[in-house]
Write the structure tokens for this entry.
Amino acid sequence: MKISASPGLNTAQSVDALVKTIRIPPRPGMLAEVQAELAQAEPDPRRLAAIIANDVALSASLLKLANSPFFGLRLKAKSVEHAVMLLGMQQCALLLTGILARQTIQAEKVALAKFWDFSAKRAQAMAELARRLRVCSGDLAHTFGLFCDIGIPLLLERFPDYQATLDLAGQSATADFTAVEEQRHATSHAAIGSLMARTWGLPETVTLAILLHHDYAVLEDRNTDEQVKNLIALAVLAEYSIQKYHGQPSSPEWEKGGPRACLYLGLSGDEVDDRYEEVQELFNRGQ
């Protein structure tokens, strides 16, 4: 496959100049307040609830998510403080981060409903797989699943032909996804997404995993942090489960990363099918 590169983007200086033209949303003030409270030696659930409750719309969105079938709460959360008590401070902070991301990133002339639906499903599937396989915390997996492709809408907003790039990258059976992006735009959704994650104060493990999540060779690299590799491998398995759930054929990304991810996680073919059935049950509960 021949890929044409954008002209005049060959030097490091021009790449840096290009990146500066891509809109990275600043971290919302409420998110900074929430993260500051969680960073305290003894975070206070009531103070956290009070910070969130200052925004009526965000509070309503948080309660709607908390009471969704995905969490399966025996009691319905009646207030933000009640939701914090039922779900815990970390989980509520993660839900808030996702709500803020969806509200903040609105690319003009681009329909993002499918993007956010897939991101939410990937986050849910990764949290479930993390709990089943016990390779990392469900909270960390959920955060990465929600944010790992966050650079895509930012690049859709910046480049009129970026959708064509996504199509090329997603169809290539040999070229690395991010290599296709870099040849056409001198950057990638992984690089831009990692930058946004760092700007928003997400854990360093998440920001590095976002940067590397299409570089499946890192799953065999002893120098790469185990938690980073866990997140990347779980994402490959989660995306495969989502595609299978929707009746889609195996994707080139699964062919490139699936065998490495399964080997890293120690999963046989039958075990992969078992994990898929668990994810399918999770999605069915959420309907």
Notes: The chain has two domains: 24-104, 110-287. The two ends are 40 Å apart (CA to CA). The CA atoms of residues 107 and 157 lie 5 Å apart. Residues 110-287 form a domain with the Hypothetical protein af1432 fold (CATH 1.10.3210.10).
